[in-house]
Specification:
By secondary structure, the protein is mainly α. The protein has a single domain, classed as lambda repressor-like DNA-binding domains (434 Repressor (Amino-terminal Domain), Orthogonal Bundle), CATH 1.10.260. Helix 2 packs across helix 3. The two termini are 13 Å apart. The relative contact order is 0.20.
């Protein structure tokens, strides 16, 4: 599963709209959409913010990030 797919699942599990997640993280809704659709990976400053809002450990999001990169390299 790619980072964006994980993000979408967790966002929905937390009953957040893309706009609400973006607002809580201090980024744009369009950036969330780019991440969820796999067109972008979040920057290193965004990962901790996403983890905090989604109530996840940062390590989990870093693992998603690395998994995404590995899949794209194959």
């Amino acid at each position: 599963m790619l980072f964006g797919e994980h993000l979408l699942v967790e966002r929905k599990r937390n009953h957040l709209s893309a706009e609400a997640l973006a607002r809580e993280c201090g980024i744009s809704r369009s950036y969330i959409t780019l991440i969820e659709t796999g067109r972008r990976l979040p920057g290193k400053k965004i990962i901790p913010k996403l983890a905090l809002v989604l109530q996840l450990k940062v390590n989990i999001l870093i693992n998603w990030y690395l998994e995404d990169i590995r899949q794209k390299m194959q």
